[in-house]
Write the structure tokens for this entry.
Amino acid sequence: MGKTTLIGSVSEIRPLHTEEQLTEASAQVDDLAGVRDKSTTTVAIDFGRISLPGGIVLYLFGTPGQERFRPLWDDIAYGALGALVLVDARRIDASFDVLGLVEETGLPYAVAFNTFPDAPRHHTPEQLRAALDLEPATPMVTCDAREPNSSIDALLALVQHLIDHRPAEHR
Amino acid sequence: MASATSSTVDTAAVGDGIHLPDTARDLVKILVTGPFGWARPP
Amino acid sequence: MTSRAAGDTAWVLEPVLEVPHVVAAVLLTRDGLVTGYTDALSQPSAERVAAITSTVQGACRTAAAAFADTDRAEIRQVVIESDHGYVLIVPTDHGTCVAAYGDPEVRLDLLAHRVHSQVARLGEKAMAAGPRGADDDTPA
């Protein structure tokens, strides 16, 4: 859902990918309705780096997107200070699990709605925020993962959120 | 903004070809994640 | 030992089980789905093994390329040595992997020889099968 694309857009070093071709059998397990040109999936991690103004260097770890790779989560998430969660506005319900997992992990996060130029706007921002049941403080932005500036803005929103809410609250 | 080829993290050479990252900067690990498993329709 | 396999993958895995001290073997797709597995594993175990084995071979491919400072590498095999024994992973060049698990007494050279020859046979069969779709009739 744009994770690999986003990291590729912003990384100042050559990004790392671990993609494999989706098999036919996978198309039965994974509901790809509405996703036209997704022919590969990340099986381990994506990785990239971007330096932000002010001396912060972000090391970006992209997680795999299929449920069967969920056991990897703890190791990939270990040491992370925050998460940027990419959400497809057309399939909001598909994001509930990952949002729950991010919250359960205790990671502050920002939500970035992946914009598609041809996607009709079904929801207002308020409706999207309500549909995802986000805390008022959680940043919510739109993002075109293919565009470096748009992607960097989403990361900046997350970083600002991390700065504003340091130290992390324990639940 | 982001250059594809430049490397802006400074390292210090400690001799014998070994480099250590400059720890004066804040190095932050961020997850980039998304819909975790496409849900099958009920 | 027999294998529980989707389709006809038993012929791939059973010769691997013949190697002494081999505990289990799995045939999987490179994107992490199980195609066949041997009796020592339950289906949920085989599914977990397939997912994580896909991760391992994908990560190893990227690691090999990273060290060589390039974008692509082809893994010949991955060997994991642990207190439980050895895992050997050999990818095919048509989107699948054979993975075998042996206890600490297993002879890696014998196991590798057997797994690589099964992978070669899989390759021959894939070439002989012709274009995808010739064998599978999907319902209209």
